[in-house]
Recover the amino acids of this structure.
């Protein structure tokens, strides 16, 4: 079974930029109730979708004080636990980040390691790609970062 996930967060001053559990040097971070790790959120929704479960907002409601500032890798660990409970195994995930900046490639291996560890799969089974939005629209104006992902379970 496969699942799809998408997320977007806007940039804000004064927060660290966390993508795939990696703090990336940048002049702004992403706004959000949790650590706003847009990559992990998209991957989480892809895994939940593949499991036939409701979305990330169901398990981690945006207004829930217990979720404030949480590390999104914990969300992925919860997804892995839900897969275990469903008797299903995560095979691979593949994601694309859409951002004009910063450069993702230097951090790719660290992100793959973090996501793989949280999901209980080898980093080789975690695809992370990045593209710009060719300066089009909100992402093109550097107002935020979006991510899309797919996941496969059996
Ligand atoms: Mg999100």
């Amino acid at each position: 079974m496969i699942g799809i996930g998408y997320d977007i967060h806007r940039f804000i001053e004064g927060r660290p930029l966390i993508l795939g559990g990696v703090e990336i040097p940048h002049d702004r971070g992403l706004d959000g109730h949790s650590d706003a790790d847009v990559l992990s959120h998209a991957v989480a929704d892809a895994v939940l979708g593949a499991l036939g479960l409701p979305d990330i907002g169901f398990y981690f409601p945006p207004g829930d004080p217990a979720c404030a500032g949480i590390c999104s890798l914990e969300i992925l660990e919860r997804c892995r636990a839900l897969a275990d409970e469903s008797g299903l195994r995560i095979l691979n995930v593949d994601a694309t980040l859409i951002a004009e900046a910063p450069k993702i490639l230097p951090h790719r291996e660290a992100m793959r390691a973090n996501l793989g560890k949280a999901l209980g799969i080898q980093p080789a089974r975690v695809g992370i790609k990045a593209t710009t939005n060719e300066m089009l629209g909100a992402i093109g104006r550097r107002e935020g970062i979006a991510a899309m992902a797919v996941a496969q379970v059996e």
